[in-house]
Every structure is written in structure tokens, then in C-alpha cells.
Inverse folding.
């Protein structure tokens, strides 16, 4: 909402400066978004007297002027304006001044060989109007040498952000009222131009939709003369950013911007029969003033006559019956519409307007008659004509809210002590009536006031939030208690463990291009897409953290990065059976590019492999508190790791056959192709929601003393079928003597020369821990036999 | 038979002249070896009478001791020289680069969330979470924005085509405020929580991304008022920026879910093209910057969340995490937060060992 200082002062008697007014506006909740002071824009422009004008020696359309700027030192100026002539007074921009319209800095120059010491300006160049036919001509009594800004009456324009709960401040008068309450001046009563209304209104007015339009008041003014508005009116509208159109239109806009009260003027000649507020018929059309046609439905309120719809009620008038230059008789409409209906209609039509903004937030139900009289008076004053009596259909809401208020609440809720008398003064200056027993009657225009808390807000915002003192929250005794949940602790720990492993934490979008989500969904579940995505790239909720990280790895590779080691902790989004979401906490890792660069020690650059992914998966699962020793490497199968992975170089880590805690391995070449990124790329995904919570953990660890006797190791080399998983062999060996065997480690895997076709050799180092007494040869022999027997069950054969 | 002293002198000279361990060994055999003259001389003592032995023994014994000592000393010297020579051969060029371990980093948003948790834990706040895909009841209605509320339209909401089982609209939460409702419904009052997390609005330009991070704060108790809100925010910002000169300006505003509603500005100055938080916004060279919204929780919201407004009252606030992270750590481009560029992450990210603690100060200096 924009308005000039002059306009504000029409309603507010004040000596406050612009800065004081702005501070006051901010303090009471009318946030100042900007102040435009034309005096700054017009710095360097002065009133000048043209002494002589002569044809430019080298250009037909230019003249060489000598102009007096009041210091007795006439300047030579080259000018192209046809109306420049000796004896006139105009506006001269001196070297250094900036032309408001185009930002050009004026300087002393030569134009076609003739020196010019400034520029005589047009209205448009100074952004004071559209005229560019010639330079500004000032009256003969204009004081030569005076700053043009001072002469012109540069009027600062203030722009405030009015919050949606304050439609009463969507007019300058309402802002003036708030400022007066703050003590920044005195609110003037509204000046009502006198006029005489005669005769009943010749047009029948009805509301057939009392729900959507509870009140519809009207009046006809005959014999008006439309035309341009007077300067004062144009200046006010322009300061609000509104283009003057014609007197009749401008006056309705003046009522709206000055008093927050939209009204409408119809050209009576274009109407036929009764003018009625009613529901639109389904499919009914109207050509609105913005030259667009809208198709209406039965939930919308319209103003119509016998011929059809003339107005989308409270939102926009129709093109057909709008006033024009030739209009002589007008029907004025001032109505009260149901705010919710206006909002719903506006949203459905996708149509915004200044009127809608006010009606849907709620205009003042007490300002129908006064608003109509003010509009009528101004029309009669400026455009002439004879007004009829008012005709009223229906009535606006009139039940004032009465709130039983305890002035002590101001301290209890607002945290500031305000004397009761001052609370009363504040409320009354805002139009509230305060009864002796603190029953507070709210003005009808304050639709936002619902209860005592709103009254506290009114008192505190006018009294000053700066007077609210800080008060410490009560503290628990002693040291603050820990607050993090187990899940939060797991995520925090994992994040730092992942970063300590050399990974960079990324945050990627929760939404993906549909193709990327599609590639990572499991089963036949389609991606969950937004109804109104901001772009095709941000459309589907991610079913995995890997696509976002792969896309980041691709961007990095495209920028020439040698490697990306990225992780992210975030959610995957799935539909839940109740229609809401099932959001699963997840850690994703993508390892792309070089694991190690080529080096003088390490030789060629090495890519990441599936074991890098496995190592991270296990290490981080352990950091997350998962029972890593019990995990099984399983898959690929229907439980994972999924088609996005290399089928021979990926697996899942599971607790039992179905509980998948993680998937890891190399990304499938088809996935790399889909994401247009070079491989090999290794990836890991940890499903944090699947990790079982630790139960009953205490600070004290289980008791432990390192064994007194030294452990011994024995090596076994087995010939096994090539398809046997090393993990199976290790598990079998481990189980051969659970008491003695504390470790089994594969230290060699070999196939080729000396190993029969279809077989491989696996060598393991078995650690044996004696208990109370040392192993005797016979013990060791017995254990070795058990190890070999266990391996033999898997088709292994001890190598000689 | 030559006399022992001169023989000893000759042996010591030979030992001293030995250039190698082999030459030294030859000397040992010649003297202390089984057939060495010292050993032989010692053997002769056995055949002597006690008187003769008393006369001859000291000379032989002292010869043996002197030679043994000389052999040991020479051996140690030769070995040391050999080791030195070997080590000299093993010299490597240590200006060659060592294998570098990759350095990981924690994202600034996560770091700041940990800082928030640490500071607010000291004030007795727990961290609460809620779903990012919400229904319109939790995101709007329960926050006093019914279907016709104009503020709903201002939220640029992302919707899903779906409806919940009970017919509510499904959407991406536009703020962290629905966590207020869920927490109050779950835990009742009194309550002190912060709720950091991702939020979404259909808005994208130089300073807005369709996904960003907010933190919600909520205190419900008896006798909580605007003064407590002001203190809490001041205390938080002082701890967060580790500056005592943080100055807040509260301005009346409007949020449907609070009454009274307050916009929070913080004073800052421009230093070298960067906004530095601190000082009074009206002081020379300073200005105010909007940093969050807050207010006393609207009685209707309390009722929606199952609390009796006659018994309980409190405040709520919302801050942009990305924004306060930028102010503290000097990033200037929000879009880079979500790009996953390792160069940016390494520069603006944090060491895993920068875990915020109150004793070390929650912030991590560059």
C-alpha cells in the first residue's frame, strides 16, 4: 500500500517528520517497505529563465539558449524542444544531475560543436507525467534559481506492508487512525462534501443472494460530466501507483485507496431493468474490465440486470457497463459481500484485484452510507449532476463483538505493565468502546479481533513492543538435562562418523525429476508426484537418496572433479495406507571417480570398488549401533539390493532373511546410462529405520579382563568349489569350535595354476584362544579336525 | 716366551687397528679364543704352585680384562659404524608427497542444527520432528488458517493429488509449525521444543529455493509472556553468534497462529560487503534485518492441540536455518547449499570433530 505524505496529512494533523512517521508505522505493525522522496530524484534541477533562443548553426531542429539560473551568470544550453523560446521559464538540469527517467548523468558537453551546460527537461524526463512534446513550461511567477523540487512540492511516498488481518488499514484513513493512536498527530474527521439528494432512485436494486451479498446500496447520479480528474486527485492516485483514468473511475479508486472502501460506478445507459445481486448461473460468462472473459458458476455472486452479468461481485466490474468518457448518468454501487465467498470466487477464477483484496479480508460494515455519500458528494462537486436518494437492499452485519477484558492480561500475556487509563485511551483512539466494567466493544471494521489476546495486541503494539522487558525462562535446577532421542543420537553420530571416513555431507532436493524417481522405485509402485511441481526437475518425491547423489556426482564430474565422495542423511518418502506419508530415515553414499589418484607410490589411479562400499556400510552400521557381527551378506534377490545395482557386485546386509539394514555395491551400468554419468560408481544406502534400537544399555560395560594366556593361530588352505561363498566357509569354520575359535580371517584366495578347473583355493587364519589352561597338542589336533570336518561339509578339501 | 705386558700391548694395538668385525674376531681368537695366548697363559696357572700362581696371576688376569674390554668397545664401535652406513644407504626423499587421506565434512545446515540443539538443550528444549508430507489440517487448519483464510494462498503450497483416508488434502509442509500441533497433541503441556527440518514453498529466485530449512520453537507453560519470548530469542542469538551486543527489535505483525504476533529484527552492520550481526540497528552504519516470526500461541491453536487456553499459554517462533547459517558463516548463495559440490562442501563444511559443545563455544571458527 503506497501513499504520499500529503495524502496522509489530508486525514492526519501532524508535525511529525517523514522519518518519525516511518518509525511510528514500523512500531505499530505497519511495516515500511520503502520511502521514495522525489526531492532526492530532483536534486540538481532548478527553475531557469530562457533569455535568448537562436537557431543552432549546424542543426535545424536544435536551438541554442542562454538561460538564467538566478546567479547572474547565464548559461548556454542546447535544446531540441519545439516550445523552447526566449522569455519562458522551465526546468534546467545542471551538470551532475541524474535524469530520473533514464538515469543519465548530465555533464557539460558539446552538441554539434556548440557547448551545452545542462538540459532543459520535459515532464516525462522528470517522471512527473507522460508529456514529452516539449520542455516543461512554468508560470511567469516561478522563482528563477529555486530548486525545482521545492517549487514543485516534492511529496515523499511511503510504502507499507499491510498484514492480511488489517483490511481497515488498506486505506490511508485507517493508517492515519493508527498513527493518531500512536500519538503521531490528530485524526481529522472525514470531510463530507455537501449535496442535495432528490427523488427516489430510478433503478430497482435487490439482493437475491443475501448470503453472498448481505447489503447492496445504490444511488443514481444523472447529468454528470466525465473527464480528467483534477491535479490533486491525480497526484494522490499516482502516489499510490494507480494510473488516473477518468474522474468517475478515479473517484471510486480514491474511495478505495483513501478509505479502504471499494465501490463501483455503472453507466446507467448500459443497464436494463432491476440491478440484482444474485448467484451466477453455471456457465454464465462475463467480459471483465481487464478484457478477459470469465466463466462463472453457481457458487459465485454477481451483479446482473435483465441482460446479464455486469460485475463479478466484489472482484471486478464488467467491460460492458463500465463508465466511459461519454457517460452522463451513473448508478453507484456500494455493497457488503461475504469475505469467504469473495475469496473462494477469486481463487477459482484466478483473478486478483484491489477490490477482492479488501472484500475478502473484510471491509468496514459501518461505512456503506457514509462511503456512498462521500463518493456522491465528490462526484457532484467535480463532475456535477443530480443525485437521487439512496436505495438500500439488505443490511450489513451490525452485531458488534463485545469482549470481556481483564486489563491485567496485558501484563500476563504481553509482559508489559500499561496503566489502565492508557489502555483505555489506546483502545478508544482505535475506535473501541470501553465500558466501565471493561466490556470492550469492537468496531465492526476490526474483523481480526476475536478475543482478549487481540485486545492485548492492540494495547501492546500501540504502547510499544520496545517497552516489553526480557524475562528469563525458568530453569531446571542444576545442569540442563539431555534431550536427544535415540534416533537423533544415531543420526548425529552417523553424520560425524561418515564425515570422519572422508565423505562430504551433501543436502539434495527431496524431489526429483520423474524419470530419476521412476528408476529407483521398488516394485510397481509409481513415483509419488506433486500436483503442482515448480518444475519438471522437482516433481517426484525421492524413493531413495541415491538418485539425488548420483545427479550431484554427475554435475561434479561435468565440472571436472576427479572424485565425489558424498553422503546425505535424509528421508525417503512413501505413501502410507492412511493416505499420508511414510518417511524413512536413510543414509545414502555415492563414491564416484577416483578412489586414489595416480601416484608415485600407488601407480595408476584406482576407482572405487564394491568392497569400499561394503567397508563403509559395515563401519557406519556399527557406528549406528547395529549388531554388525550378526549381519549376513545376502542377495541379490527380491529383497535387494535392486535392479539399480550391478547384479554380480552388490548385496544387502541383513539381520535375518528379510530385515535389510543396508544395500551396497557397484551401480548398474544401465543406471549410469540413465543418469548420464561415467562409472564405475559405488553406492551404499543404510536404512536407519530398520536398525533395531539398543535395549537396556547402561553406562557400565560388561565385565572383561584380557585373557592371561596367549592366543595361537593356525592356517588352513581349502580347495573349494568356485561357487562357494567365502563367507559361508568362514561361518562354518567359526562354528567348528565356538569356545576356542575367536577369529577366522581369509588371507588368500587363488584360482588358476595348480588349482583344478571349477575350484578355488581359500586360505584362512584361525585364531584360537585358550581359557584357563594352555592348549595341548592333542587339543589343537582335535580342533583342527573339527575345522576340517566343518569345511568338508561344504565340499571343501584340505590342501596338502 | 715373550713377556705378557708387551704381548698385551701388541694385542691392544691390533684390536684398535681392526677395520672390520672379521679382523676383530681374528684378534679375539688369537687372544681370548680357546687356543689364544691369553687363554693358554691362564691354563698354565693350573700347573703352578700357590706361590708361583700368586705371582703370575695378576698380570695374566689384567691382560685378559684389558683385552676383553678393548674387544667389546671395538665391536660396539664397528657395529655402530656399520649401522650408520646402512642407514645412510636407506635415505629417502621426504619431499615426495605422502598418501593423503580424504577429508570429509559436515554440511553447514547440519552443523547449525547441532548448534541449535546444543544451545536450546541448555534452556531445557528438546528436539521434536514431524512428517514433511503433511495434511492440510496440521499445516493450516489447526494453525488457525481455515480453508478460506487468505494466508493459505500466500504460502505457495506444493500439493499432492492424493487425499488422506479421512479426505484431507496432502501437501508438503510449508513451515515447521505443524510439529507444534503434533507435539502438543502427543505430549500435552508444559512443553519446550525446537523442531528443525525441511520445509517447502513453490518459490524460486536468487534468495529463495523451493526447499529450505526452518526451526520452530515452542514453549507452553503457565505464566509465559512476550517478555519470555524476547529473552529466549536474545539469549539464543547471543549464544549462537557468540556476541553480547546482539540487539533485537520486535515489531507487531500478523500470523494466524499467534496473537499477539511479533516480527523479529536484528541489528547488523555492513563490514566489507558482508552483513555482520550485532549492535543497535539505529546506530550509525547499522540497520535492521528481519530474522524471524514469533508470537504468543493463539488460543484457538491451543484448543486445536487439545490444551485449555484458560490454563496454558506460551510462545512460538520460527527462524530460517539456512539464513542464520549464512549470516554466521558467510555463505552468500543459498542455491549452493543443495548442489553437492565437494569444493563448496570442503570450504563451508565442518570437520566431524567440530561437534558443538557449550564448553568450547557452539560455533566453529574458520
Amino acid at each position: 500500500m503506497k501513499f504520499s505524505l500529503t495524502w496522509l496529512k489530508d486525514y492526519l494533523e501532524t508535525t511529525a517528520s517523514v522519518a518519525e512517521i516511518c518509525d511510528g508505522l514500523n512500531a505499530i505493525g505497519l511495516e515500511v517497505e520503502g520511502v521514495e522522496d522525489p526531492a532526492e530524484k530532483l536534486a540538481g534541477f532548478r527553475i531557469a529563465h530562457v533569455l535568448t533562443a537562436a537557431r543552432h548553426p549546424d542543426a535545424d531542429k536544435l536551438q541554442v539558449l542562454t538561460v538564467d539560473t538566478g546567479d547572474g551568470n547565464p548559461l548556454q544550453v542546447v535544446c531540441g524542444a519545439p516550445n523552447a523560446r526566449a522569455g519562458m521559464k522551465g526546468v534546467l538540469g545542471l551538470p551532475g544531475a541524474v535524469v530520473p527517467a533514464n538515469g543519465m548523468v548530465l555533464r557539460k558537453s558539446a552538441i554539434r560543436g556548440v557547448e551545452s551546460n545542462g538540459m532543459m527537461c520535459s515532464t516525462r524526463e522528470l517522471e512527473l507525467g507522460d508529456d514529452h512534446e516539449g520542455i516543461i513550461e512554468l508560470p511567469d511567477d516561478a522563482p528563477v534559481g529555486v530548486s525545482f523540487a521545492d517549487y514543485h512540492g516534492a511529496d515523499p511516498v511511503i510504502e507499507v506492508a499491510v498484514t492480511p488481518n488489517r483490511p481497515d488499514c488498506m486505506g490511508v484513513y485507517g493508517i492515519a487512525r493508527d498513527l493518531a493512536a500512536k500519538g503521531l498527530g490528530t485524526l481529522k474527521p472525514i470531510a463530507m462534501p455537501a449535496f442535495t439528494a432528490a427523488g427516489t432512485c430510478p433503478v430497482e436494486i435487490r439482493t437475491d443472494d443475501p448470503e453472498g451479498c448481505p447489503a447492496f446500496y445504490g444511488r443514481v447520479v444523472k447529468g454528470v460530466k466525465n473527464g480528467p480528474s483534477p491535479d490533486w486527485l491525480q497526484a494522490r492516485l499516482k502516489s499510490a501507483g494507480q494510473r488516473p483514468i477518468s474522474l468517475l473511475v478515479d473517484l471510486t479508486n480514491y474511495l478505495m485507496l483513501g478509505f479502504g472502501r471499494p465501490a463501483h460506478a455503472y453507466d446507467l445507459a448500459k443497464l436494463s431493468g432491476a440491478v440484482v445481486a444474485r448467484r451466477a448461473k453455471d456457465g454464465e460468462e462475463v467480459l471483465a474490465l481487464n478484457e478477459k472473459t470469465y466463466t462463472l458458476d453457481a457458487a459465485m455472486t454477481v451483479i446482473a440486470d435483465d441482460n446479464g452479468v455486469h460485475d463479478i461481485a466484489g472482484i471486478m466490474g464488467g467491460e460492458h457497463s463500465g463508465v466511459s468518457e461519454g457517460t452522463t448518468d451513473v448508478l453507484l454501487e456500494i455493497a457488503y459481500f461475504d469475505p469467504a465467498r469473495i475469496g473462494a470466487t477469486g481463487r477459482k477464477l484466478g483473478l486478483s484485484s484491489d477490490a477482492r483484496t479488501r472484500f475478502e479480508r473484510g471491509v468496514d460494515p459501518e461505512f456503506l452510507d457514509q462511503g456512498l455519500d462521500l463518493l456522491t458528494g465528490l462526484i457532484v462537486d467535480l463532475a456535477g449532476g443530480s443525485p437521487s436518494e439512496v436505495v438500500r437492499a439488505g443490511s450489513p452485519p451490525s452485531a458488534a463483538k463485545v469482549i470481556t477484558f481483564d486489563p491485567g492480561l496485558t501484563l500476563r500475556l504481553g509482559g508489559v505493565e500499561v496503566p489502565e487509563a492508557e489502555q483505555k485511551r489506546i483502545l478508544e483512539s482505535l475506535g473501541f468502546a470501553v465500558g466501565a466494567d471493561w466490556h470492550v466493544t469492537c468496531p465492526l471494521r476490526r474483523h481480526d479481533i476475536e478475543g482478549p489476546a487481540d485486545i492485548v495486541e492492540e494495547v501492546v503494539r500501540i504502547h510499544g513492543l520496545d517497552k516489553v522487558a526480557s524475562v528469563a525462562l525458568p530453569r531446571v535446577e542444576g545442569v540442563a538435562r539431555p534431550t536427544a532421542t535415540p534416533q537423533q543420537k544415531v543420526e548425529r553420530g552417523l553424520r560425524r562418523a561418515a564425515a570422519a571416513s572422508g565423505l562430504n555431507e551433501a543436502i539434495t532436493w527431496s524431489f526429483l525429476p520423474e524419470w530419476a524417481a521412476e528408476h529407483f522405485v521398488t516394485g510397481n509402485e509409481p513415483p509419488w508426484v506433486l500436483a503442482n511441481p515448480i518444475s519438471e526437475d522437482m516433481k517426484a518425491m525421492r524413493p531413495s537418496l541415491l538418485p539425488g547423489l548420483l545427479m550431484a556426482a554427475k554435475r561434479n564430474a561435468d565440472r571436472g572433479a576427479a572424485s565425489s565422495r558424498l553422503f546425505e542423511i535424509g528421508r525417503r518418502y512413501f505413501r502410507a495406507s492412511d493416505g499420508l506419508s511414510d518417511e524413512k530415515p536413510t543414509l545414502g553414499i555415492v563414491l564416484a571417480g577416483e578412489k586414489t589418484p595416480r601416484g608415485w607410490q600407488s601407480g595408476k589411479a584406482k576407482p572405487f570398488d564394491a568392497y569400499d562400499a561394503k567397508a563403509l556400510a559395515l563401519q557406519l552400521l556399527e557406528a549406528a549401533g547395529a549388531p554388525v557381527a550378526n549381519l549376513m551378506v545376502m542377495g541379490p534377490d527380491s529383497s535387494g539390493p535392486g535392479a539399480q545395482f550391478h547384479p554380480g557386485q552388490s548385496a544387502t546386509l541383513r539381520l535375518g532373511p528379510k530385515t535389510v539394514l543396508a544395500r551396497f555395491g557397484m551401480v548398474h551400468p544401465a543406471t549410469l546410462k540413465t543418469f548420464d554419468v561415467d562409472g564405475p560408481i559405488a553406492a551404499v544406502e543404510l536404512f536407519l529405520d530398520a536398525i533395531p534400537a539398543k535395549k537396556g544399555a547402561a553406562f557400565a560395560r560388561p565385565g572383561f579382563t584380557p585373557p592371561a594366556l596367549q592366543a595361537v593361530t593356525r592356517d588352513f588352505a581349502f580347495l573349494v568349489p568356485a561357487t562357494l561363498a567365502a563367507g559361508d566357509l568362514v561361518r562354518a569354520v567359526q562354528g567348528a569350535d565356538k569356545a576356542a575359535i575367536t577369529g577366522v580371517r581369509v588371507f588368500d584366495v587363488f584360482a588358476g595354476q595348480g588349482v583344478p578347473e571349477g575350484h578355488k583355493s581359500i586360505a584362512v587364519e584361525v585364531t584360537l584362544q585358550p581359557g584357563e589352561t594352555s592348549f595341548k597338542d592333542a587339543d589343537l589336533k582335535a580342533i583342527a579336525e573339527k575345522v576340517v570336518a566343518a569345511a568338508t561339509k561344504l565340499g571343501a578339501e584340505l590342501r596338502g | 716366551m715373550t713377556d705378557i705386558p708387551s704381548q698385551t700391548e701388541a694385542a691392544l694395538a691390533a684390536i684398535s687397528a681392526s677395520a672390520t668385525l672379521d679382523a676383530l674376531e681374528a684378534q679375539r681368537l688369537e687372544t681370548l679364543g680357546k687356543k689364544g695366548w691369553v687363554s693358554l697363559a691362564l691354563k698354565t696357572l693350573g700347573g703352578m704352585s700357590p706361590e708361583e700362581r700368586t705371582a703370575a696371576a695378576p698380570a695374566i688376569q689384567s691382560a685378559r680384562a684389558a683385552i676383553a674390554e678393548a674387544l667389546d668397545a671395538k665391536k660396539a664401535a664397528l657395529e655402530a659404524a656399520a649401522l650408520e652406513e646402512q642407514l645412510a644407504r636407506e635415505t629417502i626423499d621426504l619431499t615426495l608427497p605422502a598418501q593423503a587421506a580424504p577429508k570429509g565434512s559436515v554440511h553447514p545446515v547440519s552443523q547449525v542444527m547441532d548448534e541449535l540443539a546444543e544451545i536450546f538443550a541448555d534452556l531445557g528444549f528438546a528436539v521434536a520432528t514431524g512428517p514433511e508430507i503433511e495434511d492440510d489440517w496440521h499445516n493450516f487448519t489447526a494453525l488457525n488458517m481455515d480453508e478460506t483464510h487468505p494466508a493459505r494462498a500466500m504460502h505457495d503450497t506444493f500439493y499432492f493429488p492424493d487425499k488422506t483416508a479421512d479426505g484431507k488434502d496432502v501437501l508438503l509442509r510449508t513451515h515447521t509449525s505443524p510439529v507444534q500441533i503434533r507435539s502438543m497433541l502427543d505430549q500435552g503441556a508444559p512443553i519446550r521444543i525446537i523442531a528443525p527440518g525441511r520445509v517447502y514453498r513453490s518459490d524460486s529466485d536468487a534468495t529463495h529455493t523451493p526447499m529450505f530449512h526452518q526451526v520452530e520453537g515452542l514453549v507452553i507453560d503457565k505464566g509465559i509472556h512476550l517478555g519470555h519470548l524476547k529473552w529466549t530469542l536474545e539469549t539464543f542469538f547471543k549464544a549462537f553468534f557468540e556476541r553480547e551486543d546482539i540487539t533485537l527489535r520486535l515489531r507487531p505483525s500478523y500470523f494466524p497462529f499467534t496473537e499477539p504476533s511479533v516480527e523479529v529484527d536484528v541489528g547488523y552492520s555492513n563490514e566489507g560487503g558482508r552483513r555482520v550481526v550485532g549492535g543497535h540497528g539505529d546506530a550509525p552504519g547499522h540497520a535492521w534485518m528481519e530474522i524471524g516470526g514469533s508470537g504468543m500461541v493463539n488460543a484457538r491453536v491451543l484448543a486445536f492441540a487439545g490444551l485449555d487456553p484458560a490454563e496454558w499459554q506460551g510462545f512460538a517462533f520460527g527462524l530460517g536455518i539456512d539464513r542464520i547459517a549464512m549470516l554466521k558463516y558467510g555463505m552468500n548463495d543459498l542455491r549452493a547449499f543443495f548442489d553437492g559440490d565437494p569444493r563448496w562442501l570442503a570450504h563451508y563444511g565442518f570437520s566431524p570433530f567440530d561437534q558443538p559443545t557449550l564448553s568450547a563455544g557452539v560455533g566453529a571458527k574458520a
Observations:
- Chain A touches chain B through 105 residues (CB under 8 Å).
- The mean pLDDT of chain A is 93.
- Chain A has 20 helices and 41 strands.
